[in-house]
């Protein structure tokens, strides 16, 4: 097994002994139910709250879908959390602890008798109780198997169609399953090459967990099998009872009249496929070394090798001394840094890089959006074409869409008890995973032998609560994104000894000319009621090597190579199940230290946060490979044994990994914030964008002020989160410097001076993107917001392009987009996705303007760009771009889409819950905020 960090011998022994008891109850049982377990004590005492819009219920029958399309009606509990979530925008300014449940659910354990809506027992050893307020399933089992079976059954009740979608996305078979819409083609073409597996590969991952993770691995797979059994039990019952999700009719899987057709049974390997989608998108990190190399080469071409490298490094900002940190007490955790003298770097020859082709043998509508609508029965016409734009519209998932990058999301705010009114730590935290209907995650409470938790899990892998609360502790995560993916340059060869070309399909592995493995997916589709895309098909193909999947071809020093991407978690998509199992085990997690040890068993790159009545704590997880000395992880490296990861075994994709203590971790710091910012000193950024200005500053500045004042409450910490969530980062952090340059001399153009005054007024009012009155759908300072949206991309170009030149500017903007405003469709998960201001040129602009203004700058850019470093020239460039921006009408700044009319500023920002099924939801006010969020303060402990 991979050399994981381990608990102390005593703790490990105790955990195994405790686990042995639950293993006895792992097998399916029948007959009389086991004895009622002892009641669980809830140590939060009514001070744990949560929210997950739009609502718990994510399944809809055909009748319910047609009702939604015809009359706008919604199934019960499909939209009853959306108004409270939306209401915090207007309500946060007057928020008190007593008013929290106006905007959040009561996340206490159990359901009082007078609040029970329904109780079902799919087996005699488990009950699923749903509450009247939200319909959340509270699953209580008397056996381990029954508990997990109930979790699967409840998942089927709430997310059956969604789980089916995601297992097909993970397998690269979305178009064959749901239709050939162009967005579906694009989605599977982006996701499958990141985690391409054969069925044997998926089965091997299941076996690996069973055989390499000890008793917990065996228990995890027993739990997963029980969960799958529960899903399949509901699948059968809903099919036979004709209350299955209506999408199966609309996509031609089941006949509405005869009930002929079916829903494919779920298998353990489906969980691996779903985990590959979830973990790869939210828990990945690194990669992109080919684009980094291209931008470095461009810098070297412009400035020469030495100066060009210096310029490039100043933009790369591996360890910017001004970056906001989660661990801010000065503790350093060196990882993935720049070596003093790099070895094995494999930069491509100029102009030689080509992307590896993926799609072959297109027929019919493949590669197009050509439609051929079927003649729908009269009773189905209201739902015709609901998937014509794809089951998941292009760009809606993080890391998908044209030109998209993998983006981490989520935020966390925790304050130590030393600075709270009660003396107990307070946490406001949650994952920011986009907005969908139904949501990708689902709420549940699990109570059974060895399991006691409430919170969210991604649908389809919900054996355990992944983020939530236990009996006397709560936890959450943000995407960390540290470098766990490297790019190797494998030397190409021909088995007969002839000269290789860039198209060769053999490569040298440890001296032997070795054939690349070819993996393929052939998909075909026909038009259905839901998706009118005309009949078509294509074949996807990837080449796999011992060093990962081929992404590009090039020459290095004139020799043909293939660039490959090697991710440490590839082939280990579900190994993190052990860590999640531990989080849910009250006999294992008893304090911050035991939680951190449990978190070290999560292989994906996440920042984990913990709070109980005594301690707030943090741990960064991930399979961080130990690299060979001298290897530069920011650039491609030669695929030779001298430059491989330490103890690298390609057969299992295992290696040596950094130790527990080498991962950023902390306990008892005065406060913690995370919004996917830099973790700690020395923990090198895996890509561009972790510089002097980051959206994490919106949290850090506010929480630091709260802590300095003291007496922090749940409401006050929630208020600063909500305020940051409607604040424009550019307006708060950068507009003061821009105005300082502009006001260095009087603005003599009266019209332009009026625009500057509008920006000044907006900044003085807090730089918010917020309605001027609840429900007005119009922003206060609307013109200033419009000007900033139009100005930012222009000012960045005016500031940097003249100095960098066209080629280098193009390559650097390819590595890091200049803007990610709420209205920008190129953001982390497309337009209307909530998440904004994560990555952009904020830090570059900040450092450059401060240099022009003569202010101190730590870690400056290698050159000064605005106006060539001259204050007057910089001012002229900024004013010229501002004048151009001010003249751009709202209809051009906000061009409109399928949700909004051109010029509708509020709507352009607004959050849309993208329909993954047949039920649509209303548009709500923009918030840059976690999708699922907890507000917790434990007053007591076991």
Secondary structure class reads alpha+beta
Q: What integer value in Å does the Rg equal?
A: 27 Å
Low-pLDDT segments: 1-34, 400-406
Q: Which strand-content bin applies to the residues?
A: 15-25%
**Terminus-to-terminus distance:** 34 Å
Number of helices: 24
Number of strand elements: 30
The percent of residues in helical segments reads 25-40%
How do the strands line up in the largest sheet?
3-4-5-12-13-14-15-23-24-26
Instruction: Describe the largest sheet.
Output: 10 strands, mixed
- Quaternary state reads single chain
Nearest-integer average pLDDT: 93
How would you portray this structure in words?
The chain has 942 residues and is of the alpha+beta class. It is built from 24 helices and 30 strands. The strands form five sheets. A ten-stranded mixed sheet has the order 3-4-5-12-13-14-15-23-24-26, covered by helices on one side. Helix 4 packs across helix 8 (214-241) and helix 19 crosses helix 20 (806-815). The longest helix has 28 residues, at 214-241. The chain is globular and about 75 Å long. The model is unreliable at 1-34 and 400-406 (pLDDT under 50).
């Amino acid at each position: 097994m991979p050399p994981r960090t381990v608990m102390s011998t005593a703790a490990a022994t105790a955990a195994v002994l405790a686990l042995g008891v639950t293993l006895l109850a792992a097998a399916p049982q029948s007959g009389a139910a086991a004895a009622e377990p002892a009641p669980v004590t809830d140590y939060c005492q009514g001070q744990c709250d949560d929210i997950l819009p739009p609502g718990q219920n994510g399944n809809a029958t055909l009748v319910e879908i047609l009702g939604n399309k015809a009359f706008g009606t919604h199934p019960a509990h499909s939209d009853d959390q959306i108004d409270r979530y939306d209401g915090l925008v207007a309500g946060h300014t007057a928020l008190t602890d007593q008013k929290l449940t106006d905007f959040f659910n009561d996340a206490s354990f159990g359901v009082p008798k007078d609040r029970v809506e329904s109780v079902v027992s799919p087996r005699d050893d488990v009950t699923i109780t749903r509450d009247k307020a939200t319909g959340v399933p509270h699953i209580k089992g008397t056996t381990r198997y029954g508990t997990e079976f109930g979790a699967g059954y409840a998942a089927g009740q709430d997310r059956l169609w969604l789980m089916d979608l995601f297992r097909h996305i993970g397998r690269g078979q979305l178009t064959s399953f749901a239709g050939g819409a162009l967005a579906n083609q694009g989605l599977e073409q982006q996701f499958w090459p990141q985690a391409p597996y054969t069925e044997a590969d998926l089965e091997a991952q299941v076996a690996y967990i069973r055989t390499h993770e000890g008793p917990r691995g065996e228990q995890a797979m027993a739990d997963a099998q029980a969960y799958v059994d529960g899903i399949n039990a509901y699948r059968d019952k809903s099919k036979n009872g004709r209350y299955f999700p209506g999408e199966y009719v609309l996509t031609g899987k089941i006949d509405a009249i005869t009930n002929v057709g079916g829903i494919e049974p779920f298998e353990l390997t489906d969980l691996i496929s779903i985990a590959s989608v979830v973990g790869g998108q939210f828990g990945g990190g690194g990669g992109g070394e080919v684009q980094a190399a291209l931008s470095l080469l461009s810098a070297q071409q412009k400035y020469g090798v030495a100066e060009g490298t210096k310029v490039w490094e100043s933009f790369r900002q591996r360890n910017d001394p001004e970056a906001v940190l989660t661990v801010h007490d000065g503790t350093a955790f060196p990882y993935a840094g720049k070596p003093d003298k790099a070895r094995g770097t494999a930069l491509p020859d100029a102009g030689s890089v080509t992307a590896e082709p993926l799609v072959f043998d297109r027929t019919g509508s493949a590669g197009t959006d050509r439609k051929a609508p079927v003649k729908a029965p009269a009773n189905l016409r209201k739902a015709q074409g609901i998937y014509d734009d794809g089951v998941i519209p292009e760009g809606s998932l993080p890391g998908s869409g044209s030109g998209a990058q993998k983006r981490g999301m989520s935020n966390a705010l925790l304050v130590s008890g030393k600075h709270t009114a009660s003396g107990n730590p307070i946490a406001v935290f949650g994952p920011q995973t986009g907005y969908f209907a139904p949501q990708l995650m689902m709420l549940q409470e699990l109570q059974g032998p060895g399991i006691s938790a409430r919170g969210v899990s991604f649908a389809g892998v919900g054996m355990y609560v992944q983020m939530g609360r236990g009996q006397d502790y709560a936890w959450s995560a943000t995407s960390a994104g540290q470098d766990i993916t490297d790019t190797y340059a494998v030397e190409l060869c021909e088995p007969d000894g002839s000269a290789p070309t860039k198209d060769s399909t053999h490569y040298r592995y440890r001296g032997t000319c070795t054939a690349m493995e070819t993996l393929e997916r052939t998909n075909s589709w026909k038009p259905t009621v839901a998706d009118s895309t005309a009949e078509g098909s294509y074949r996807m193909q990837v080449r796999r090597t011992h060093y990962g999947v081929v992404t590009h071809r090039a020459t290095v020093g004139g020799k043909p190579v293939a660039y490959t991407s090697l991710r440490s978690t590839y082939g280990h998509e579900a190994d993190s199940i052990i860590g999640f199992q531990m989080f849910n085990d009250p006999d294992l997690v008893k304090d911050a230290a035991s939680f951190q040890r449990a978190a070290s068993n999560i292989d994906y790159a996440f920042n984990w946060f913990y709070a109980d009545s005594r301690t707030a704590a943090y741990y960064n997880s991930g399979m961080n490979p130990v690299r060979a000395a001298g290897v530069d992880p920011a650039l491609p490296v030669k695929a030779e044994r001298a430059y491989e990861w330490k103890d690298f075994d390609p057969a299992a994709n295992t290696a040596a990994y950094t130790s527990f203590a080498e991962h950023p971790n902390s306990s008892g710091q005065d406060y913690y914030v995370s919004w996917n910012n830099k973790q700690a000193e020395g923990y090198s950024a895996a890509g561009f964008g972790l510089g002097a200005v980051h959206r994490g500053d919106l949290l850090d500045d506010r929480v630091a002020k709260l802590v300095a004042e003291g007496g922090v409450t749940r409401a006050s910490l929630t208020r600063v989160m909500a305020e940051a969530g409607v604040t424009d980062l550019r307006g708060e952090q950068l507009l003061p410097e821009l105005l300082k340059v502009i006001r260095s001399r009087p603005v003599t153009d009266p019209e332009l001076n009026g625009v500057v005054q509008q920006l000044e007024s907006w900044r003085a009012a807090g730089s918010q993107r917020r309605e001027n009155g609840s429900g007005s759908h119009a922003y206060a300072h609307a013109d200033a917001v419009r000007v900033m949206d139009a100005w930012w991309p222009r000012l960045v170009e005016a500031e940097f392009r003249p100095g960098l030149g066209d080629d280098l500017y193009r390559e650097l903007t390819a590595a890091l987009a200049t803007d990610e405003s709420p209205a920008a469709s190129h953001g982390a998960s497309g337009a209307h996705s909530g998440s904004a201001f994560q990555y952009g040129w904020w830090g570059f602009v900040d450092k450059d303007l401060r240099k022009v203004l003569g202010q101190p700058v730590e870690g400056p850019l290698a050159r000064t760009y605005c106006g060539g470093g001259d204050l007057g020239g910089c001012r002229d460039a900024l004013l010229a771009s501002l004048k151009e921006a001010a003249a751009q009408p709202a209809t051009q700044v906000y061009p409109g889409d399928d949700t909004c009319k051109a010029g509708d500023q509020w709507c352009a920002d607004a959050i849309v819950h993208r329909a993954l099924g047949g039920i649509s939801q209303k548009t709500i006010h923009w918030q840059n905020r976690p999708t699922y969020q907890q507000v917790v303060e434990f007053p007591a402990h076991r």
